[in-house]
Design brief:
heterotrimer, A alpha/beta, B alpha+beta, C alpha/beta, B: Alpha-Beta Plaits, two-stranded antiparallel ribbon, C: Rossmann fold, Rossmann fold, 2 domains, 7-stranded mixed beta sheet, 6-stranded mixed beta sheet, 16 strands
């Protein structure tokens, strides 16, 4: 039976019709993740796109078929940890899940997440990384890549887009020595589903899945190209797909012949202004990260 | 003042938002051309593609008409149904 | 047999919480609350306590963890001070508006700047409008007893609000006194288990907690929250009476009057400074001055009716604040009292501020305060300028 046929049998835990933009692959990732986690799940969705699209609900109505709540931007992991601790205490095995954007993960929520990872709290933390605060009109986050236009790193005569590189959150989470960390892309859906299943089965600590999402509205491309842009991110090695499981790194999508980074960058508007130097810097960053990753895979392959 | 049965902000009944109204044209799968790979189901952000009686069918109630399924279909079997 | 122990305030708080059997405790250490956390950790290490302890990386996470555990259905406890409370402000406000009956002892400490670790309720008084019940206590026995009562008040079906038991850092937290420790059986009998139905996160009963909420609903929830505060006035008294009957210690509910029957000149206090004020009242009485004292116990809900009734027909009132309200040029409690008696006919009021940052509010200073109140009463003039109670001996 194909992956699609298996997925077709799973219940969608999200209410039909949330107000995400056309072609939103954060909505796709959220529906897919919660299908995999199933009905015995409590999910926290902090402020961000997926909270804003009424997946937590509106007024006295809920947006989900499972218990859902709106953590603060900066306490998703600790609030989840508290839920999990109580259920562990009363002997009930419940999946306690975060579905959080990069702002709530890489920026404001970082401390709480790092604390939960260090304590070994048994929660599943899924970050949908669309490289900025998209819900409020694309302000920069520390997950925004170098050179990207955002409404707070605009293009002017003095600076052109963001001046620093993206924070390498997946690697930072792996370095917490959590039992499971994976990156995933909606363009490689069977791989993503497998990783969500693995995360669900982790019982000895925190599982972290970093999904490289894109954003048609903020990044500036036509809605039907959402998966294409995700795929280009992977094929250029800019968003490497790998996992860290029980101390071992492994590359899951090996891109032997990467496309030039320009093919990824210039397929959308947010990079249309960038200079040759910025492209070179992004290519160097991408190559170095890839080399480091290969070294880690080799070094931990015992 | 709007009254509820609750003493703090909670929601119990499912919120239904009619996002099907958003689309300009409905996407339709040509079953003759469809190779049954299921990518449209895996990539649809709104969970609008169902697998029924061995076929992939797009349900239009909540489909926003983003066009991802059309763009990704390797068999070019999906098109916006224009006119009517 | 009642057990008597000599303990400091933090130890008394830890014993009160231990007897209340919380499911989850998460606390981040901060001076002067730190020994309380250490006591808890030791109880769990020794196996005398069955609670789940989580060691958070900040106060913000401490309150967040308890938010989660409370939403899952657990009884929860924490404690903090000053900067920790400030860091916690974001989840603090949310806990009350989500109607979660979390109990948190606040070991009152100055807010910086300047850098200071010493006692004073500036921290919690600044947050008096964040929707929590705030009860201020005077001694270690009251810390222990009220920490137990706090759970019963918070979890009452007509209240369902979080409760702070506030006690002064160092003055109480590090001062040892003899306290009676109730038997576990009796406390368990007094405090039934917490079974939430109004809000929870449970896959067996799915609901959304805190969906996006428009103003017309938000206003309704605010109205209910304010009504719950009104109900809490009754519940605090009921719980006080039930406790007094069972354990033999009566704290008189929302306020504790002292020698008020025929008092003409009244001091109003809050927290541990009440002790020296009591002595000053006794000394004044010996000199023939009809002095009296009101100790505010519950600042939120505010005991409006009690204060109006107690201050009716007095000659003058002084309020001693160990905190300030910037922009009013008085202390915070003074503002509260002034509002409460605004429709009483011209009772002269005198604002006092002193004892900040660990300074002593001595009996002599309290006697000075009474002298000022007497003077204001005789002149029938409303003093509106704050009088600083300054202990300059040896400084």
């Amino acid at each position: 039976m194909s992956v699609a046929e298996n997925i077709a049998k799973l219940d969608d835990m999200v209410g039909p019709g949330v107000t995400a933009c056309l072609g939103c692959n954060a909505e796709l990732s959220m529906r897919m993740a919660l299908k995999v986690f199933g009905s015995n799940t409590i999910v926290g969705i902090p402020p961000g796109c997926m909270g804003g699209v009424q997946s937590v609900g509106w007024a006295d109505k809920t947006g989900m078929k499972i218990p859902v709540f709106f953590p603060l931007l900066d306490n998703t992991a600790s609030m989840l940890a508290g839920i999990k601790k109580y259920y562990e205490r009363v002997g009930r095995d419940v999946n306690v899940v975060a579905f959080a954007g990069d702002g709530a993960t890489v920026d404001a929520g970082f401390q709480a997440l790092s604390g939960a990872a260090e304590r070994g709290d048994n929660i599943i933390y899924v970050c949908y990384d669309n490289e900025g605060y998209m819900n409020t009109g694309f302000q920069r986050s520390s997950s925004t890549a170098l050179g990207s236009w955002t409404s707070t790193t605009p293009v002017g005569s003095s600076t052109k887009g963001k001046v620093s590189h993206k924070k390498d959150m997946p690697m930072i989470m792996a370095m917490h020595d959590i039992p499971y960390m994976a990156t995933a892309s909606p363009a490689y859906m069977p791989d993503m589903i497998k990783k969500l299943e693995k995360a669900k089965n982790v019982k000895n600590g925190l599982a972290y899945v970093h999904i490289y999402n894109t954003c048609a509205t903020g990044w500036g491309y036509e809605s039907e190209r959402s998966i294409e842009i995700c795929r280009k991110g992977v094929q250029s090695r800019f968003t490497p797909i790998y996992e860290f499981e029980n101390g071992k790194f492994s590359l899951n999508i090996n891109i032997k012949k990467p496309i030039p980074i320009e093919d990824f960058l210039f397929s959308m508007k947010k990079y249309k202004h960038i200079s040759e130097d910025q492209v070179k810097d992004l290519q160097r960053y991408t190559d170095e990260k890839w080399e480091n990753l290969l070294m880690l895979c080799n070094a931990t392959d015992k | 003042m709007k009254k509820t049965d609750f003493i703090c902000a909670i929601g119990k009944e499912l919120n239904i938002i009619n996002t099907g109204d958003w689309k300009v044209y409905p996407p339709v799968i040509d079953q003759e051309k469809c190779k049954k790979c299921g990518l449209c189901l895996l990539y649809c952000p709104t969970n609008s593609v169902k697998h029924e009686d061995g076929k992939y069918i797009i349900h239009l109630e909540f489909c926003k008409g983003c066009g991802v399924c059309i763009h990704e279909c390797p068999a070019n079997s999906i098109e916006f149904k224009k006119g009517e | 047999m009642k057990q008597r122990k000599v303990v400091d305030g933090n130890h008394a708080a830890a014993l009160g919480a231990l007897l209340s059997k919380p499911d989850v405790v998460a606390a981040y250490p901060i001076t002067p609350q730190t020994p309380l956390v250490q006591h808890f950790s030791q109880y769990v290490a020794n196996g005398v306590m069955d609670s789940t302890i989580v060691e958070p990386e900040s106060e913000h996470s401490a309150m967040s963890i308890l938010t989660g555990s409370s939403l899952a259905g657990g009884r929860t406890f924490t404690a903090t001070s000053s900067q920790g409370l400030a860091l916690m402000y974001e989840p603090y406000f949310r806990v009350s508006t989500m109607r979660l009956p979390i109990v948190m002892d606040i070991v009152n400490r100055e807010m910086i700047s300047p850098q200071s670790v010493w006692g004073g309720p500036q921290d919690s008084l600044t947050l008096r409008d964040a929707g929590w019940i705030q009860i201020y206590v005077e001694d270690n026995q009251e810390i222990l007893d009220m920490t137990i009562q706090a759970f019963k008040i918070a979890e009452h079906k007509d209240v369902l609000l979080p409760v702070n038991i506030c006690y002064d850092g160092f003055y109480l937290s590090h001062m040892t006194e003899g306290v009676y420790v109730p038997e576990q059986d009796e406390v368990t009998e007094f405090l039934p288990p917490y079974r939430p139905t109004h809000v929870k996160l449970d896959p067996e009963e799915p609901m959304a907690v805190d969906p996006l909420t428009p103003g017309n609903y938000l206003q309704y929830y605010r109205e209910l929250h304010m009504q719950a505060m009104d109900e809490a006035k009754r519940v605090i008294k009921e719980v006080n009476d039930e406790f007094a009957k069972k354990f033999g210690r009566d704290y008189f509910g929302l306020v504790e009057p002292y020698r008020m029957d025929d008092a003409e000149f009244v001091l109003v206090t809050l927290g541990s400074l009440t002790g020296s004020a009591r002595v000053a009242v006794d000394l004044a009485r010996e000199k023939g001055v009809k002095a009296g004292l009101i100790k505010i116990r519950s600042l939120r809900p505010f005991p409006l009716e009690e204060i109006k009734e107690l201050l009716k027909d007095r000659k003058a009132v002084g309020v001693v604040d160990r905190n300030v309200s910037f922009g009013w040029h008085t202390g915070i409690v003074y503002q509260e009292i002034k509002s409460a008696i605004s429709d009483l006919d011209t009772v002269p009021t005198v604002p006092f501020v002193g004892g900040l940052g660990g300074e002593d509010l001595t009996t002599e200073l309290m006697s000075d305060a009474i002298d000022h109140v007497v003077k204001a009463g005789k002149n029938s003039q409303i003093e509106n300028k704050t009088i600083w109670l300054i202990n300059d001996k040896g400084r």
